[in-house]
Amino acid sequence: MGWGLVLALTLIVIAPVIVVAWQAGVSTDIRPEDIAAIRFTVTQAILSALVSVIVALPIARALARRQFWGRNAIITLLGAPFILPVIVAVIALLTIFGQGGILARYLAEIGFNLPSIYGLSGVVLAHVFLNVPLVTRYLLQGWNDIPAEHFRLAASLGFSARDTFRLLELPMLRATLPAAALAVFLICTTSFAVALTMGGGPRATTIELAIFQAFRFDFDLARASQLALFQLLLTGVTALVAFRVLRLASFGGGSGRPLSRPDIPKSGGLVVLDATVVAVAVVFFMAPLLSIVVRGAPHLPDLPSSIWLASLNSLLVALAAALMAVLGALGVVLAAAYGATVAGTTLRILAYLPLALSPLVLGTGLFLAINPYIDPRDVALPVAATVNAAVTLPFAVGILHPVLLRTESQYANLADSVGLTGWSRFRDLYFPASRPALGFSAGLAAALSIGDLSVIALFTGADVTTLPMQVYRLMGAYRMEDAVAASLWLLLLSLFVFWVFDWWGRRDA
Amino acid sequence: MRHSILAAGLALTIGTPALAQTPVLTVYTYDSFVTDWGPGPAVEEAFEATCNCDLEFVAAGDGAALLARLRLEGARTDADVVLGLDTNLTAAARETGLIAPHGLSADDLDLPIAWEDDAFLPFDWGYFAFVYDSSKTPEAPSNFRDLAQSDTKIIIQDPRSSTPGLGLLLWVKAAYGEDAAEVWQDLSDNIVTVTKGWSEAYGLFLEGESDMVLSYTTSPAYHLIAEEDPTKAAAAFDEGHYMQIEVAGIVEGSDQTDLAKSFLEFILSDGFQGVIPTTNWMYPAKVASDGLPDGFETLITPETSLIFDPSEAAMKRDVALAEWLSALSQ
Amino acid sequence: MLELQEVSVEHGSFKLRADVRIAPGNVTAFVGESGAGKSTLFGALSGFENLASGQILWSGTDIAPLPPAQRPVSILFQDNNLFPHLTVERNVALGLTTRARPGHETLDRVHEALEQVGLAGFGARKPGALSGGQRSRVSLARALVRSRPIVLLDEPFAALGPALKAEMLDLTATTLARPDTVVLMITHDPQDALRIADQTMIVSDGLVQMPRDTADLFASPPPDLQKYFGK
């Protein structure tokens, strides 16, 4: 089973590139601008990963050691930027931090000029805005995995906050931070619209943009496949090195349940510090979202009726993608636990790679593979669901892997002794034990799928549209306010779907 | 909603199964053409009223994506008509051998230039222009050199990923020739940022991220007519404005050649041309008998129309792109 | 003298009440059904649970308002008593200091304690390289160097085999039980109590009952204890 899944995942990850390369060949000519694109891609991805991790650390730490009203709502809403179509997220961010944004206007009134955010710093800012929530959730899970007794011991032995950090938290972070940074790095390697828009010009050319150019400006598929191979190589080698050298923990992201923290004083300077950190995070991440709510809400009733059909399509895609992602992840995790060690490790590395798939190459490869046999329009939604499932698989694997591993190590002997094998072992052991994680990962996959545009553009007819497509179409028709309203609707739908799955997971927990 | 939710939703079938005697005309076009607020629905209704056929649009991104789609499908394509390429793309489209001559006369068009293409027929056109908010920017620059000298901030589209972006590239090349690289160098400090597509650029401009944005001379008409906002204006440049002419063509090997031809004829009729100004926000290739809508008379009309013919455009774009990249990458 | 004066702890709908006195020089066992309130009582003593009312007096001073670290209390949990990434030496030294490089004086005391629990020479190892019994000894050594007069044992030896458990209890009795300290232990096994506890308290339905002599108690157990032990 392990090697079968390795094969299946390999197909999903590299088959599109192979198909393009097979039909068009692979260019062997490396241009200086390709080197520049690779260099910029790597630079911005490394910086984005580092800054995301540095910013997420104090936020996660403050949230991990405090319980307050609205904490769960903040953790859920922090994930919202990651769900939005990127251009909407960028516009929301600029509403606050851009040249014409609220901050710039306020600063201008008191006589300061906000320096231009376009450039490498802008790219990093936008990626931080999009990815910090993810890292925060993941780190929260790390805190949750520290045994409660250790915090009690810390309290009992009189640890200062610094001691707790040094002796309890740092060892946990040594395992979790690199995994989180790797995920952000991989996600950022395929950035294109954000990198270009925030980067301020062609200096900010990423590999993905070069692929885009090869594909539609030059229509040079051989070059596109060459660049896609570079991209795959870059991410594959990074993931491999990270796994071998850092012996990474899985990239997960738990529900962030509140911890009992007797080691932390309930008043004094630390409380002020934590409150400040949380407040700043809320302002930075929520203010742009709030701008979408404020601007979009009045226009919600004016949305064209086509939005409902698009919503239905998006929901179907999201539900199918969530189902496939979770089932696929269960397969990967169980195969990794039972299969040969090499297969297990290979699987876990492969499961990371969809994060770095180029949507354009993926779409083109699938199109070329499908077109000779089936009208692509017939399978637009199934293809969208499959691609979304592949792209969200790494998250589902990351969330489920530690939970199932723990279940297995605690109850394997018991389950063996009572003859719980095969399907009944799944039904009576893995399923109930991992249900909260299943709900959370399915919710995340569904929410991400609703906001995803990726490959559907090549496959659609005139009628089959999804919500993010409607958002772009509204923007393309000068209807900025309607587009914001549609984004708000998309956001609400995503959060609702996430909430339903998450609730299902925790219902009896 | 023309199709049942189930059919469209599950994408198990495409639209309504056509009756055997109703021929289907498949038209590939760009995305914004087929939206509820684009020309698509009105065009479909008007054509189907006379053709005894089923007109089906297939949307594929923008003009360049449309061409890429056609190339990917090659001779296997279902398309009978392709609608929405512009003259910067037609040379490449012609090279594919996928476009058949339309065989129609294109004599009395309302275009600023003569039309002699036997493969493509224009359906609308416009001038690229920098759009600004006259309430915030009282005096707009009147040419590229003025713009470069001023502090005016602009947002443009990347020519590698956007048709207006490519249009601007050719605009500067057409106006300045050998000096284009120098003009770009001078402009580089005016450019706030470069976006993937028109939507992103225009969206950022509306957010107040720049003083001007690359769009069309007709863009202010949308704000005036649809939003009753008279503040948006296009800056008239004395070098002249580069044109975008959007065209349609019949696909070679179409099994509906006659129907395709009658659709191309229909394109130049009032039923099509009349909806273009307030749905596509462009000038109709042949003004409908009731004239242009109120509001269009307020738009600037450039003295000089710039345009490369398709083969020239195809030849110049690579050099122009290299100049652009090197000027803006420093 | 440890006095719990009209102590009550509320934990959701659960309420624990205790009004007892424990003299130093004693080992006291707590028995009772799961959920009866034993761990809540230890939480209140060590400072992880807030009192709804009452006082906890040690030598006449109310320690209830103090944070866990300032109480005269050492606690050994059932699991996770050691930090897996720190050496045995550092784990024990944490009873005295959180400094990364403990001073000579500290190290001398750490080594002395390790010797007392039979782990001389194990200082450089990490907990992962020790057996379950050895890990328990490290926890004991840390309690030794802390030398707090109230020692709480929350079933730290529950996972050990009977012989090893007996050995650990004896070691606890000989090293930690001194004339000026009280040792409190939670247990589910009468043998544990009979082995080292002078007196035993029954915790039942949220009420901590008066101490009884251990031998007497198990010779003629009251009805609720009979029920608990399934007799």
Helices and strands in order:
The complex is a heterotrimer of chains A (about 500), B (about 325) and C (about 230).
Chain A: H1 2-24, H2 32-64, H3 71-78, H4 80-83, H5 86-97, H6 102-109, H7 120-144, H8 148-156, H9 161-189, H10 193-199, H11 207-217, H12 221-246, H13 269-296, H14 306-338, H15 341-352, H16 359-370, H17 380-417, H18 422-450, H19 456-459, H20 467-476, H21 480-506
Helix pairs in contact in A: 1-12, 1-14, 1-15, 1-16, 2-7, 2-9, 2-13, 5-13, 7-9, 7-10, 9-12, 11-12, 13-21, 14-15, 14-17, 14-18, 14-20, 17-18, 18-21, 20-21
Chain B: H1 5-10, E1 24-29, H2 40-51, E2 54-59, H3 63-73, E3 81-86, H4 90-95, E4 99-100, E5 120-133, H5 144-149, E6 154-157, H6 163-176, H7 180-187, E7 191-195, H8 198-206, E8 212-216, H9 219-227, E9 232-235, E10 241-251, H10 257-267, H11 270-273, H12 276-279, E11 283-284, E12 305-306, H13 310-328
Parallel strand pairs in B: 1-2, 1-3, 6-7, 6-8, 10-12
Antiparallel strand pairs in B: 3-10, 4-10, 5-8, 5-9, 5-10, 5-11
Chain C: E1 2-11, E2 14-22, E3 26-31, H1 38-46, E4 53-58, E5 61-62, E6 73-76, H2 88-93, H3 104-116, H4 132-146, E7 150-154, H5 162-175, E8 182-186, H6 190-196, E9 199-204, E10 207-208, E11 212-213, H7 214-219, H8 223-228
Parallel strand pairs in C: 2-10, 3-8, 3-9, 6-7, 7-8
Antiparallel strand pairs in C: 1-2, 1-4, 4-5, 9-10, 9-11
CATH class of the largest domain in chain A: Mainly Alpha
Overall CATH architecture of the largest domain in chain A:
Orthogonal Bundle
Q: What structural class should be given to the helix and strand makeup of chain A? A: mainly alpha
Q: How many independent structural domains of chain A?
A: 2
Return the string of H and E elements of chain A: HHHHHHHHHHHHHHHHHHHHH
Question: What CATH architecture of the largest domain in chain B do you see?
Answer: 3-Layer(aba) Sandwich
Let me know the CATH homologous superfamily of the largest domain in chain B: Periplasmic binding protein-like II
Q: In angstroms, what separates the terminal alpha carbons of chain A?
A: 31 Å
Counting structural domains of chain B, the number is 2
CATH fold node name of the largest domain in chain A: MetI-like fold
Beta-strand percent range of chain A = under 5%
CATH superfamily of the largest domain in chain A: MetI-like
Approximately how much helix is present in the residues of chain B? Answer: 25-40%
Strand content range of chain B: 15-25%
On the 0 to 100 scale, the average pLDDT of chain A is: 83
The general outline of chain B is: globular
**Helical residue percent band of chain A:** over 70%
State the end-to-end distance of chain B.
52 Å
Gyration radius from CA atoms of chain B, angstroms: 20 Å
Q: For this structure, what is the CATH class of the largest domain in chain B?
A: Alpha Beta
